[in-house]
Amino acid sequence: MAKLYFRYGAMNSGKSTALLQAAYNYEERGQHVLLAKPLIDTKGASQIESRLGMTREVDFLIGGDDDARALFRQERERKRRDAGASLLPEEPADVACLLVDEAQFLSEAQIDDLFRIAVEDGIPVLAYGIRNDFRTHAFPGSARLLAIAHTLEELKTICRCGRKAVFNGRRIGGRFVFDGDQVAIDGGGDELVTTYESLCGNCYLEESGGRLG
Question: According to its UniProt record, which residues of this chain constitute the active site (predicted)?
Fold first, then answer.
């Protein structure tokens, strides 16, 4: 049985790099993959970008109200047609894996779609994302993945102090903030530039004045 995998980590833990590497590994062996990400993730537009400078166009974007499984099936058929016949003409080349970046931005229903793609459609799904927002609250998509994914894999990174980073601190104009909308993509102009920093528990509490959530 194919599985739904959730590979998670704090910001800057190499999630997008790992996804692109996984896609490369499949394709190096002559297999076909589909890449997707949520439409709300405007960073990189329709591309997946890694901190190492690698980029790749996704096969489809998932809007807030979209049926992720329907989009997958549509793109799967397109990929099958584009790939042409395999060694056995009656068995056209199929998709070997679906890779999803920034999965925390998907809805609970869309995570359920990913589960059904793995279990009912028989295609492994590798979902990459972060667990918690800058206030230490779980994203709905991540919470659902933690609940139903067959396999959980943590991608580790370190805090500025050298400890393991588990939280994501938000900076606006260079200053840490602990209030605001759950979703704010990196970017902005002048004094409103939004960035993120991976923090351990000690450093997060130090910056927040002891506030947790």
Answer: 102 (proton acceptor)
Strand partners, 169: 197
15 marked as part of a ligand binding site: yes
Query: 71 phi and psi, to 5 degrees?
Result: -60, -40
Residue 146 · residue 5 · CB < 8 Å = no
User: What number of other Cβ atoms are within 10 A of residue 167's Cβ?
Assistant: 25
User: What pLDDT was estimated at residue 79?
Assistant: 86
d(CA 208, CA 199): 11
108 marked as binding residue: no
Judge residue 212's burial from the number of C-beta atoms within 10 Å of its C-beta, 0-12 exposed, 13-18 middle, 19 or more buried: exposed
Lowest mean pLDDT among 54-63, 92-101, 111-120, 200-209: 92-101
Phi, psi of 193 (to 5 degrees): -60, 125
pTM of structure: 0.89
Which residues does 109 contact at the CB level (< 8 Å), separation at least 6? Answer: none
203 is in an annotated binding site: yes
Active site residues: 102
**Chain segment 100-139, per-residue pLDDT in tens:** 999 999 999 999 999 999 999 999 999 999 999 999 999 9
160: tokens are 């500025």
